[in-house]
Recover the amino acids of this structure.
């Protein structure tokens, strides 16, 4: 399997595939713009660090566990075809099954600017079809360059419309949660998931003093994470997305998770997720496709 992947999709000195000790297959990318790692299970981006940045842009817990059928703490999990709990089936996994099932590589290459591009497709199975009995393809294209671009495409290949919820649940590396702010969501309505589910409106930039779990709706705005400890801003630009999720577990919830990188791993991460959730779920008509695109870049100051 590894030899076939490297023969068909590897790029000498730039892109290769290796097997982790857990049995999962990882893709390693190194080019003139930076480096990254992707796990084929879940098409899960695990790391990305552009040239010139002293710290990774993508956070991965030091206690993250790689295991068949299990999600990885950190990186950029793909939430699909629903976001959060399933609407009717409590036994179905939260945030869907895409992040814990195999994907296969269908394309790789080098773009004209020296960027490395990798495209994966979710592998449907009897188990996934039990949870999602719709004819469709789900592809994720990732381009590693000065910025990192992710394109999640849902193609309805059947004869009936369906509705999806989705998110790129990206964990960003920060210096300290108490020293960051998020701009770009001023004036937006959001569902506050801490202590219930209440609709509120954002006043000013977002600062963090405790557990935060918010789904901002009806917004396609670019967000900027300003990080005074690391002296950089992370820009999150998106299209095909009308929800933005902002999440930090804070100490009590992080301690219950057990894989956040104890004792203070939670302080060094912040999730700003490009999504279509709750009020903004997407109907994908028969014979059409929908693409959620996000692009990340880090700027030092």
């Amino acid at each position: 399997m590894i030899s076939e992947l490297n023969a068909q999709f590897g790029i000498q000195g730039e892109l290769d595939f290796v097997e982790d000790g857990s049995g999962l297959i990882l893709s390693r990318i190194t080019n003139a713009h930076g480096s990254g790692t992707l796990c084929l299970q879940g098409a899960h981006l695990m790391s990305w660090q552009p040239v010139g940045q002293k710290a990774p842009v993508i956070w991965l817990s030091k206690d993250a566990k790689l295991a068949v059928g299990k999600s990885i703490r950190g990186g950029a999990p793909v939430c699909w075809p629903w976001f959060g709990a399933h609407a009717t089936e409590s036994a179905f996994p939260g945030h869907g099954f895409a992040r814990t099932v195999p994907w296969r590589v269908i394309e790789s290459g080098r773009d004209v600017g020296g960027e490395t591009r990798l495209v994966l497709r979710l592998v449907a199975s009897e188990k996934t079809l039990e949870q999602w009995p719709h004819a469709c393809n789900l592809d994720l294209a990732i381009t590693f360059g000065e910025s990192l671009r992710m394109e999640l495409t849902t193609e309805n290949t059947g004869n009936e419309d369906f509705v999806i919820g989705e998110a790129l649940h990206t964990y960003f590396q920060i210096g300290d949660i108490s020293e960051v702010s998020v701009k770009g969501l001023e004036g937006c309505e959001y569902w506050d998931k801490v202590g219930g589910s209440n609709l509120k409106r954002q006043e000013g930039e977002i600062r963090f003093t405790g557990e935060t779990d918010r789904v901002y709706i009806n917004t396609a705005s670019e967000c900027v994470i300003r990080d005074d400890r690391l002296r950089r801003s992370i820009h999150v630009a998106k299209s095909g997305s009308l929800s933005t999720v902002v999440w930090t577990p804070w100490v009590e919830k992080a301690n219950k998770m057990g894989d956040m990188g104890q004792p203070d791993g939670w302080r060094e991460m912040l999730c700003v997720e490009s999504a279509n959730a709750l009020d903004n779920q997407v109907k994908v008509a028969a014979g059409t496709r929908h693409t959620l695109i996000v692009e990340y870049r880090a700027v030092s100051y």
